[in-house]
Amino acid sequence: MTRFGYTLMTEQSGPKELVRYARAAEDVGFDLLVSSDHYSPWLTEQGHAPYAWTVLGAVAQVTERVDLMTYVTCPTLRYHPAVVAQKAATLQILSDNRFTLGLGSGENLNEHVVGEGWPAVGVRQEMLVEAIEIIRALHAGELVDYRGEHFDVESGRVWDLPEVAVPIGVAVSGERSIERFGPLADHLVAVEPDADLVQDWNAADGTQTIGDGARAIGQIPICWGPDVEESTALAHEQFRWFAGGWKVNADLPTPAGFAGATQFVRPEDVADQIPCGPDLDAIVEAVSAFWEAGFTDVALVQIGDRHQQRFLDEAAGPLLEKLRAASA
């Protein structure tokens, strides 16, 4: 059966609000919580970017059952992979083995802030391979010395390791990235309901089969609200950056850049991509593309902070019932 998640969207809510939403999401019945890991919001209107790892540490203490995940962390520029290995192990302990480390090659928006530039995609993927190798080695508990083209580790060791090793999910976009990252990862991460990704993953050498050891974890934005026009306007204000696609989104450096790139995106353009308003059946129809493509997990992004608590109080429970009935 498909598992359904709730996204802790750090770009649109403050840290205390995110912790409160996480507790409410567990109470209403979500199976997992995924957190973005941003230094900056996509758009100024979103207005937030708390440190995801501090938020997740707090979330681990106010929840008991729900799984936790970064969706996704870039372990190559803003963070050294040795530090990611340490904090992932700590979070796995704090959450009693409920944490999955979601990794990706990152976006310029978040990574340029450390002044190391923004490498070409091929270099970013090389860096991600090295980063995963380092994280895996440190999670094995040994003293690690590593000399790579992009990273070095000198006498590194993670001293507090969980009883259950931290699973790693990696964001992929096609056959080539699956061939490169699949053998290094436990789970597939993708934001498009592309059945070819699942098929290519299952056919690749060195990967576990989706649904039989491995998970395919997707994510979809929605904008539930009592009024269609208001919800559409909110989705346009907060999420019009989504219209650019990930090839564009990975390279723009600032919220001002995203504002300029999306100045001609209309509210109706956003509504064509994102279900807006109170119709739960429309949301189910949009989400169904993921389980029909073979995804095992789908995390919902409820857009905007305005109706977040109301969504959890009023809509999330009935929506989960509909999603589980339809996916079964």
Termini Cα gap: 6 Å
The gross shape turns out to be globular
Domain count? 1
The strand count comes to 12
User: Briefly, what CATH class?
Assistant: Alpha Beta
Second rung of CATH, namely the architecture: Alpha-Beta Barrel
- What is the arithmetic mean of pLDDT? 97
Taking all Cα atoms into account, the compactness measure Rg is 19 Å
Please outline the major beta sheet. 8 strands, parallel, barrel
CATH H-tier superfamily:
Luciferase-like domain
Class of secondary structure makeup: alpha/beta
Description:
With about 325 residues, this protein is of the alpha/beta class. The chain has a single domain, classed as Alpha-Beta Barrel (TIM Barrel), CATH 3.20.20. It is about 45% helix and about 15% strand. It contains 13 helices and twelve strands. It has helices at about 15-30, 50-60, 80-95, 110, 120-140, 175-180, 195-205, 230-240, 245-250, 255-260, 265-275, 280-290, 310-325; strands spanning about 5-10, 30-35, 65-70, 100-105, 145, 150-155, 170, 185-190, 210, 215, 215-220, 295-300. The strands form three sheets. Strands 1-2-3-4-7-8-11-12 form an eight-stranded parallel β-barrel, surrounded by five helices. A two-stranded antiparallel ribbon has the order 5-6. A hairpin with a 4-residue loop joins strand 5 and strand 6. Helix 12 packs across helix 13. It starts with a strand and ends with a helix. The model has no long low-confidence stretch (mean pLDDT about 95).
